[in-house]
Here is the input.
Amino acid sequence: MGTLQLEVVTPDKTVISAEAEMVVCPGVEGEFGVLSQHVSLLSALKTGPLRCRISDRDEYLFISGGFADVNSNVMTVLAESAERAADIDTARAQAARDRAEKRLAAHDDAVDAARAESALTRAVNRLRIAGLR
Amino acid sequence: MPSLKDVKTKIVGVGKTKQITRAMNMVASAKLRGAQARIERFRPYAAKYRQVLAELAGKAEGNAHPLLVEHEEKKSCAIVMVTSDRGLCGSFNGNIITRALGLAREKTSAGMSVSFACIGRKGRDAARKAGYSMLTSYADRMGSIDFALATSVAAEAIQGYEALAFDEVWLVYGEFVSMGHQPPRALCLLPLKTPEVGETPQGSGEARCEYVYEPREEKLLAELLPRYVRVQIYSGLLDTSASEHAARMAAMDNATRNCNELINSLTLLYNKTRQASITSELIDIVGGAEALNG
Here is the structure.
């Protein structure tokens, strides 16, 4: 099977740069898979897991605030944060989840519900992906 | 003639100053390496962003997004000024502040009210002293800049622009061109000007036509444009931070050199004074002996 070049880039570093056989992304309109020779595509991504198969091993990444660009067999994922499953700080994610849940449960007008909600989504996803490694 | 002891004290004092300036030079050069590495790591992200956005903006209709639309009536302007928190870096902060205040005057004379958002203590103090209204200011953050800081600055600018509180938003920062050159630069953040397709290094005409967009172009643009503002602010922060360290290195290098010069001329003075006093003592002694021999 052919491969495609996968690059996962955040503002602070390049997280992955490798030849992948398959990449599965959390697109805003549903999950989609990208194989070699995919048509040119630009898609916004949700907060969630990105699965990539690199030399017959599945690897999971946490992605948030990103989009994917596929062009001439190169796939670039630009994300505000991206972490390999093994690099996720579970203690921090747990603390973030508890904090966000508490904020949401408080039903306080001073609490920015949308912000707390997205913080919760991020934390829950981080924990889920950390469990997949 | 100054006394020998005075000159000696001065030489020791200048020597101590020299130690400090030399140490600051070395600290700045170490920090500069770190800041430059961050710019290097950020560059692929920013370049890709510009490329994608240029392609996308070419596709979507001209006035598709509120951030792209120029307000018809221009009444207020926000200036985001990025400076360092500390001084001792030559004219670096002064240049940025002059540029920002010049821009503010220009906007005021065009009939707009100007308010400042400042990152960095030096800029905040200057804007406050000049009497401009202050939005949010972030002092003591230049040592620990991250994307979250850029995000919160961008959020304020975007909210203000969409709520018609600002009709223009500018970013003033110190661009990092090279070790010896860090000019202040003013950049119009909002209304957003999308990069031209020609600016991007790669991408041939035909490959672009077959793109699949998900969701469709306008929605995707609405997702990406606010993030592009963050990218621009973040790159301004990184540039300013690297420029600050480069400017400080140059300033401290100069200071160390000046100290050396001062020590040389003071040592010369010391030796001259010493010689003069020996000579005058000898004259006294010889004169006394002559008188005794009489």
Strands of chain A lie at 4-9, 14-20, 22-27, 30-35, 41-45, 48-54, 57-71, 74-84. The radius of gyration of chain A is 16 Å. The mean pLDDT of chain A is 89. Helices of chain A lie at 90-106, 113-132.
